[in-house]
Amino acid sequence: MDRSRASDDQLLQNVDRDPDGFGLFYRRHERVVLGFFVRATGRADLAVDLAAETFARAYQSRARFDPSRGPARAWLFGIARHVLAASLQRGRVEAEARRRLGMEAVVLEERTLSAVEAAAVYCDDAIVEEWLDQLPPDQRAAVRARVIDDRAYAEIASELKCSEAVVRQRVSRGLSLLRRRLEGLA
Hints:
186 residues; 0% strand
């Protein structure tokens, strides 16, 4: 298998035969996970620790990844949400998975912290686009126009050649679907 062309699902499912595949999975998602944690905590140093724990837990639980329940990136963000919630509850980063894997603590330079903070900006657009891609086209267009572009229902209805009620329904259904999918990751 050409690892560079493999899907995230394939990389995770083949880690036992191809351990370097997890490294590629990590590189594909490191920035967006760091960005998620920077936005959630406001601290680049904490974001790095939380991201390290997230990937350590993902590696440990890779056998439980089930592509029929959703894409690998969504699974990874489910883990990230759990890591963040545990950290907020305990008031510290839990490093249990990293200890079990023998991972050293990360020492950060100012340059690295700046790069992590920059990842937060990139993360927003990438995650939103991924979430929108999960919606049916009619709901995607309505949610993008109303929520992302902050356009009026009347304007959207005119553009989509339907009634405002239909646009409202599409936005409502799209947001409900996204909420259910995100809650299913918890």
